[in-house]
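G., the chain you wanted modeled:
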Amino acid sequence: MINGISLETLAELMLRLLIAGVFGGVIGIDRAYREKEAGLRTHFLVALGSALFMVVSQYAFGTPERFDSSRVAAQIVSGIGFIGAGSIIFHKRIIRGLTTAAGLWTAAGIGMAVGGGLYVIALTATLLTLVGLEALRIVLKRSGLDFRSAKVAFTVNDQTELKETIQQLKAFGCKVSRCSTHPVKGAWLRVVMDIRYHEKVENDGRLLAELARHPDLRLVKND
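Predicted structure as tokens:
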């Protein structure tokens, strides 16, 4: 026995850490392939660390029956939010990384599941995550439903300019699902709208070029 833990139990705990790292790494490979902010190492460490915290909470202070590991799990869920927030970046008036942050949050959950001995649940979650990241992307592209969503905020001179902007966005194939305005700086109007658009509209620069004509632009998009 080592530190009161049998060799058989110790081997299983080491296996949990290994499996957690592998599952997290698989998701990280996909993110790295897509050149996202958090890749293989980040997802690997998030899943491994989550599993480690679960194992420590169960065995480092006595037998699992004596301690409630759910308290540690709750702290992991809270703490991973800081890492997720760090993966969301603001660049050229666009906020990126929301899906990557969600992937890190999921990787932490997978690590917790493995650390708790729920191997099948962790494997299922890993496969479903890959389906959500890749398989659904392919299906949506082939079906012509590969819309991205974004919340846009900018300033216009008046309602006429707003209508012209909306008409131009619709001409690009964008769909405006919600639009609200409120007065600022005298006669100016602050506009907040939710839009949906095809990936190709973003890639060719037309969308950002149209929106960049307006001052104080902020665009938060799902990647």
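Residues 7-33 form the longest helix (27 residues).

Shout if anything looks off.
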